[in-house]
Amino acid sequence: MPHIRTLDPTDLGAMRALLHLFGRAFEDADAYSAHQPGDAYLTQRLADPHFIVVVAEDAPAGTVLGGLAAYLLPKFEQERAECYIYDLAVDAAHRRRGIATGLIRTLQDVAAVKGAYVIFVQADHGDDPAIALYTALGQREEVLHFDIGVTR
Question: What domains sit in the chain, N to C, each tagged with a CATH number?
Fold first, then answer.
């Protein structure tokens, strides 16, 4: 099993490797690789206590095999938080080895320490592997998702 860990502000190389992995996995290299932010911006994101990045690395080489990016969302109705997995991917050559489950299990521990009571994630219709993974780990809800543009 690869080494799974959370990233901190000193882990810019691993963060950039994860961005490239996301670009390949989601077939959207333009969004994840072509216009990556500068070091100062990424360092600031990794220092944000409401942003959590978990990676799985090949222990000897340190190659990023998979990872997730999540946001801690402090709630207003109670003193608690929810955690949202924004992106999760495992390199195609390393799938079906329990890496995604390990990433989520690590996030469960981190999120609990940070005061979260639940983790939620979206899956696209037709993404059967993701749907199977999330179904095995949690309770499924059918919802609608809307993107509302920002007026400037």
Answer: 3-137 (3.40.630.30)
